[in-house]
Specification:
Blueprint (H helix, E strand, L loop, with lengths): L1 H5 L3 H14 L17 H13 L13 H12 L5 H10 L16 H17 L18
């Protein structure tokens, strides 16, 4: 009856009763959250210092921090396991924002693009068929 009312297992109620009989009401007090410990303010400041060094200092070729890379740094430096979502929440709480870098090919040539827009694009737009009212019938194009 108690287990059903509290929506827990019968074994949990039995453990609680045994703890109460052995140590009294103090045994039933909350022990606090069971979640894993997080980074302290001091550790977060150290993490920010590590991130300021850049990804190259941590063996990455490009200069992008991703959540999974930051997760790896946290694991290696502080011996804590974070999920990707938890890393994101940690950074947002610390005032960091998500930014997507502009991805351009190394071969990108602004002058060539500007020339194409000026010369080739107008010709391509003019070569399209003019829009005219047409027929929805494939077999009788002239039918209304």
């Amino acid at each position: 009856m108690i287990a059903k009312d509290l929506r827990v297992g019968v074994r949990s109620v039995q453990r609680w009763r045994q703890a109460w009989e052995e140590d009294g009401p103090r045994a039933l007090r909350s022990q606090g959250p069971t979640s894993l410990p997080g980074l302290s303010e001091k550790q977060f400041a150290r993490l920010e210092a590590e991130l300021a060094k850049g990804p190259a200092a941590h063996g990455r070729q490009d200069q992008r921090w991703t959540l999974s890379r930051i997760k790896t740094v946290i694991g290696r430096r502080f011996h804590l396991t974070y999920t990707i979502q938890r890393v994101r929440k940690l950074l947002v709480r610390g005032g960091w924002s998500c930014q997507v870098p502009a991805r351009r090919a190394l071969e990108h040539d602004d002058e060539a693009v500007a020339g194409w827009v000026k010369e080739t694009r107008p010709c391509a737009e003019d070569s399209r068929r003019p829009v005219e009212p047409g027929s929805s019938s494939r077999t009788k194009p002239a039918s209304p």
